[in-house]
């Protein structure tokens, strides 16, 4: 067995290629991981090996798991299908896909007209100056992508210099990133869910502990639903009463967890209808299934106002990782450059780039780089990892594995939940960052 790089009462960290050590790890109850998206990000070796696209990788991971173990794996919007195919070919069963929506993604699109002018040697005329906005997310934390120290403050607005560039003005190479998929998979069961639970201590997902809490005054917990006809005759299912009986309409534990996660940004909130409007839906209309929330979601309190009214509140909310969150425990590490990654990535073969062209100099510049002690480029928010770990937490036996640990956010989530966990990463600097962060979290949990 390879000696752990770091170890405490809940966590083991291994500095190794996961394929070299997974054969020695057994009885894993769940996988929560953010694997390489294989985008060749910034020329990094770890993101261009094709490891996520190989079924052998996911076979090795599966061999470490108990029957029925769940796996939650992030993916990039441009390459997650390749990861999904490899996972499925390795024998995992797909159960769902969670969509993580966020409004704080930055467009990283190549302006084709500017590329044409550069290619033809055209000198563009400066017609204005665009200042970078500084904004705060819903929690009041400044987005790490908008911290002053990594923005140069402004850039020139220019107009096309050649007829060819003018023709292509307004065309780009990619869309603004606004979601990431989280693949929900399961190691095949040993028989049924019931048999797997009794024999292996692993089965399904932790629904009740992950329910979305209702906001104060949002629903009436005393409301009852009485059914006159057999709901099964209409094809209904779920929380409905049998003929001649009634049941409580809303559970105190909250709403059933959904396959959507959002960051609470205005852009995302505006995608959803307002709950207060749903409260004005006529009950007669509900019987026709005309509600914006579908059949069965009736009598929502129409008095809800302001922030309570956003229907996105029915989904798990998680802001992007803040600078202070990602650096906790790393105070004694030297600051190093970090460049942020999105889920699309540039394609150098097609002339796309991570570095926007500076119109004043014609040179590429890295608008999204910074100096940080935790300089890992793909740090996920602790809140979302804690939620995902809680979702796959079993009643008694738990051992969560992250075979692509990065800076260790999955391990921090497990520490907060009191779950034993194992993290693996081939990059020693990432292991150093993760161990520092885990040591800090362990000390905090003992206060």
Approximate helicity band? 10-25%
CATH architecture of the domain at 6-103 and 178-207 and 377-445: 3-Layer(aba) Sandwich
Percent range for β-strand residues: 15-25%
For the biggest sheet, the summary is:
10 strands, mixed
Order of helices and strands: EEEHEHEHEEHEHEEEHHHEHEEHEHEH
Low-pLDDT regions? 133-153, 275-310, 340-369
Number of helices: 12
* CATH fold-level label of the domain at 6-103 and 178-207 and 377-445: Rossmann fold
Structural class: alpha/beta
The chain-level mean pLDDT equals: 75
Description:
The protein has 447 residues and is of the alpha/beta class. Among the domains are: 6-103 and 178-207 and 377-445, Vaccinia Virus protein VP39 (Rossmann fold, 3-Layer(aba) Sandwich); 215-254 and 280-309, no CATH class. The protein is 21% helix and 18% strand. The protein is built from 12 helices and 16 strands. It has helices at residues 55-63, 80-89, 112-120, 163-167, 193-200, 266-269, 275-278, 283-286, 323-327, 382-391, 409-417, 428-445, and strands spanning 6-7, 11-15, 28-33, 65-74, 93-101, 125-131, 154-159, 179-186, 224-226, 246-248, 260-262, 316-317, 336-339, 369-372, 400-402, 421-425. The strands form 4 sheets. Strands 1-2-16-15-3-4-8-5-11-12 form a 10-stranded mixed beta sheet, with helices on both faces. A hairpin with a 3-residue loop joins strand 1 and strand 2. Helix 1 (55-63) packs across helix 2 (80-89), helix 10 crosses helix 11 and helix 11 packs parallel to helix 12. It is globular, with a radius of gyration of 25 Å.
């Amino acid at each position: 067995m390879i000696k752990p790089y770091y170890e405490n009462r809940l966590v083991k960290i291994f500095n190794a290629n996961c394929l070299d050590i997974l054969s020695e790890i057994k009885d894993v109850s769940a996988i929560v991981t953010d694997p390489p998206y294989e985008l060749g990000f910034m020329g990094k070796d770890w993101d261009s090996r094709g490891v996520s696209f190989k079924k052998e990788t996911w076979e090795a991971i599966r061999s470490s798991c108990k029957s029925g173990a769940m796996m939650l794996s992030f993916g990039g919007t441009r390459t997650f299908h390749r990861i999904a195919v490899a996972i499925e070919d390795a024998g995992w069963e797909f159960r769902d896909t969670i969509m993580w929506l966020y409004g704080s993604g930055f467009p990283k699109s190549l302006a084709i007209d500017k590329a044409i002018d550069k290619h033809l040697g055209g000198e563009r005329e400066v017609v204005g100056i665009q200042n970078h906005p500084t904004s705060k997310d819903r929690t009041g934390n400044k987005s790490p992508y908008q911290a002053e120290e990594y923005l140069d403050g402004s850039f020139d607005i220019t107009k096309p210099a050649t007829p060819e560039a003018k023709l292509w003005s307004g065309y780009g190479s990619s869309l603004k990133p606004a979601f990431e998929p989280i693949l929900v998979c399961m190691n095949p069961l040993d028989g049924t869910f019931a048999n797997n639970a009794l024999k292996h201590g692993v089965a399904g997902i932790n629904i009740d502990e992950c329910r979305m809490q209702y906001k104060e005054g949002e629903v009436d917990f005393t409301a009852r639903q009485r059914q006159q006809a057999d709901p099964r005759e209409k094809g209904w299912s779920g929380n409905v009463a049998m003929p001649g009986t009634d049941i409580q309409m809303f559970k105190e534990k909250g709403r059933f967890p959904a396959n959507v996660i959002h960051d609470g940004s205005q852009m995302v909130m505006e995608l959803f209808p307002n709950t207060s409007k749903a409260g004005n839906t006529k009950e007669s209309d509900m019987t026709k299934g005309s509600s914006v929330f579908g059949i069965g979601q009736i009598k929502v309190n129409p008095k809800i106002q302001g922030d309570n009214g956003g229907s996105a509140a029915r989904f798990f909310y998680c802001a992007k990782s803040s600078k202070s969150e990602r650096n906790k425990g790393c105070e004694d590490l030297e600051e190093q450059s970090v460049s942020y990654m999105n889920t699309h990535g540039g394609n150098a073969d097609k002339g796309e780039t991570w570095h926007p062209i500076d119109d004043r100099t014609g040179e590429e510049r890295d608008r999204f780089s910074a100096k940080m002690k935790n300089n890992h480029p793909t740090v996920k928010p602790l809140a979302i990892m804690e939620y995902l770990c809680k979702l796959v937490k079993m009643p008694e036996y738990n051992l969560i594995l992250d075979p692509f640990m990065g800076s260790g956010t999955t391990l921090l989530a497990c520490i907060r939940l009191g779950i034993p966990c194992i993290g693996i990463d081939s990059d020693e600097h990432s292991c150093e960052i993760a161990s520092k962060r885990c040591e800090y979290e362990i000390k905090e949990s003992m206060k």
